[in-house]
Amino acid sequence: MSALPPRTDVVVIGGGVVGTSVACHLAEAGVGTVLLERGSLGSGASAATAGVLRTYFPGDPHTGGLAVRSMAAYRTFAERTGTPLGLERVGFLVLFTEDEQVEEFHRTQPAQRAAGVEVEFVGPAEAVKYNPLLCERSIIAAAWSPQAYACDPAAIVRGYAAAALEAGAVLCTEAPVTGIDPDGRVHTTLGSITADTVVCAAGPWAKQVAAMAGVDLPVTSYPIELLLTDPPAPHPGTLPMTLHAASGLRIRSWKDRILLGMGRPRPDESRRTWLKRLSQQLGTTYPALDGIRVHRGWSGSFDGSPNGAAFIGRHPARPFVYAAGFSGQGLCQAPAAGETVRDLVTGEQPRTEGNRP
Q1: What are the φ and ψ backbone dihedral angles of 259, each rounded to 5 degrees?
Q2: Is 240 in contact with 250 (CB distance < 8 Å)?
Q3: What is the pTM of this model?
Q4: In this predicted model, what pLDDT tens digit does every residue of 291-325 receive, in sequence order?
Q5: Does the pLDDT value for residue 1 go beyond 60?
Q6: 33 near 169, Cβ under 8 Å?
Q7: Sign of CA dihedral 292, 296, 298, 303
């Protein structure tokens, strides 16, 4: 989008929701910022999500706290950036089928509430009221969090990018990084630029980018695929984002269809076998959808950490800051991640310490 200048305070590598948030927060703080994106803005992991913002992460109050902060920022996003997100409250329902899941919920609920997460324990009958497609006999309990909203991920990227530009940031697309020198010189296919600090927000490519800087960031990249059903008849109306905790099956309404996913094929599993396993779980949990035809929706890659919580921090010996490993939940944490990286760069004490490699 812009020519590459020879020098800047900070180079941000990655132009998804996290990278554009970082660029926006830095530029608005008066930090000279250049963002480098290997393709078009928002074309990586940000384009492969189910498009839901939520604050409840089972067993992970720390991520919930970041998501609560981010949700507050999204409520004023249009005022700040001029870009409406079209938030539609859908809620988030987590289905429990094992006693251990119930025990974990009760063990972590106080910390969830302390982080500002609204979540309550509900029985099978009440869970069916939230998702009428659910087979009551297929679960033993559930967790319900009303703080979940359908949104347009591309609008988040557009809004942060526009605000970053207005604050003076330079955004360069189609500029894959090819090398990073110890002195902070970043090489791209468009040329080279020297920065005092390099920020890695490269999503599925974060590990490779970090390695160029001599940093070992334990982030893995894995494929994700989302599917769309035929329009169900009768249509159940708006369904919450619903997660089957044991299998990872997720469903939510998508216009006149239902969007669903269940991780990815196992290493020794073909896509056909994975689809069969997904269809069997779908029919067991939602009998009204048993046998419904499913079609390719969209696919992509996510960046994951060993425990599912994102890495946000600064290398102790190098001018290298990272925000990666969001495991498909960068949408939910992007505003807080941008604030945290800004504070790490400017020397302020971050409000929340990040997950460390």
Answers
A1: -90, 135
A2: no
A3: 0.94
A4: 999 999 999 899 999 988 999 999 999 999 999 99
A5: no
A6: yes
A7: positive
pLDDT in tens, 71-91: 999 999 999 999 999 899 999
CA distances from 98 to 103, 120, 247 (A): 9, 17, 11
Residues 6+ apart with CB under 8 A from 280: none
Would you tell me how many other CB atoms lie within 10 Å of the CB of residue 269? Answer: 12
- 234 preceded by cis ω (within 30°)? yes
Indicate the burial class of 76 (C-beta count within 10 angstroms; 0-12, 13-18, 19 or more). exposed
**Could you give the CA distance from residue 121 to residue 309 in angstroms, rounded to a whole number?**
23
Q: In what order do the strands lie in the sheet with 120-122?
A: 120-122, 141-145, 92-96, 241-244, 250-254, 257-261, 220-229, 294-304
The type of residue at 165 is L
d(CA 154, CA 76): 17
Residue 352 pLDDT > 70:
no
**Residue 159: which of 340, 338, 357 has the closest Cα?**
338
With b for 16 or more beta-carbon neighbours within 10 A and e for fewer, the 180-205 pattern comes to beeebbbebeeeebebebbbbbbbbb
- List, for residues 131-146, the tens digit of each pLDDT value: 999 999 999 999 999 9
Contact 193, 34 (CB under 8 A): yes
Give the separation between CA 148 and CA 88, rounded to whole angstroms: 8
Element (DSSP H or E) covering residue 143: strand 141-145
Give the residue-averaged pLDDT of 166-191.
Answer: 95
Separation of alpha carbons 119 and 107, rounded Å: 13
CB 170 within 8 A of CB 8: yes
Question: Number of C-alpha atoms within 13 angstroms, CB side, residue 7?
Answer: 2
**DSSP track, 263-299:** ----TT--HHHHHHHHHHHHHHH-GGGTT--EEEEEE
Phi, psi at 240, each rounded to 5°: -70, 160
Q: pLDDT confidence of 45, banded at 50, 70, 90?
A: confident
Amino acid at 163: A
